[in-house]
Design brief:
Layout: E1 2-6, H1 13-23, E2 27-29, E3 33-34, E4 48-49, H2 52-60, E5 64-70, E6 73-78, E7 87-91, H3 94-103, E8 108-113, H4 117-126, H5 131-150, E9 154-157, H6 161-178
Parallel strand pairs: 1-7, 1-8, 2-7, 3-4, 8-9
Antiparallel strand pairs: 3-6, 5-6
């Protein structure tokens, strides 16, 4: 199965996904590519950081499951390898979630929201986004939230980290119990 965790920047996607990977050895995390620069303090393996020429070559080779441009940078999810006995977990934006759903209607979409725009802004700045970029991300959050709801994704508000993780784990467990459609 493919599980997609999406949502605007600053809602806790990375934190929740990292915890899911630690807790559930049946999940395999696909590492997204990006053309943006690494943020101060961001782990080197948070993304596969590449230049635009390499990203464009990978697009031409059909190497992405989905890709999109966001705030002037490209982001993409490489096609996952066969991972026997494991489910694929994607941490991507809502545009990418829509593309994955088109390719695989059985993909389980989980959309995260921050409890408020102020909380989202605080989280973005705390993780190292410059204030002007953080403000632009918060402005885009309304559009992304509406798009996430149109995808009929499972909605989780991340107002308490452990509660949000538990809600995502419950969505994954229920999908596994139902099995592929």
């Amino acid at each position: 199965m493919i599980f997609v965790v999406s949502g605007p920047g600053g809602v806790g996607k990375g934190t929740i996904v990292a915890r899911l990977i630690q807790r559930d050895d049946r999940l395999w995390l696909s590492r997204s590519w990006t053309t943006r620069q690494r943020r101060p303090g961001e782990a080197e393996d948070a993304y596969t950081f590449v230049d635009r020429a390499r990203f464009d070559r990978h697009i031409a080779e059909g190497g992405f499951l989905e890709h999109a441009e966001f705030l002037g940078n490209l982001y993409g999810t490489p096609r996952p390898p066969a991972v026997s006995g494991r489910d694929v977990l994607l941490e991507i934006d809502v545009q990418g979630a829509a593309q994955v759903k088109q390719h695989d209607p059985n993909a389980v979409l989980i959309f995260l929201e921050a409890p408020s725009p102020d909380t989202q802004l605080e989280r973005l700045i705390a993780r190292g986004d410059p204030p002007d970029i953080a403000a632009r991300r918060v402005e885009k959050a309304d559009f992304e939230t509406e798009a996430g709801r149109e995808l009929d994704a499972n909605l989780v508000v991340n107002d308490d980290l452990e509660t949000a993780i538990g809600a995502v784990e419950a969505i994954i467990a229920a999908a596994r119990d139902r099995g592929p459609h």
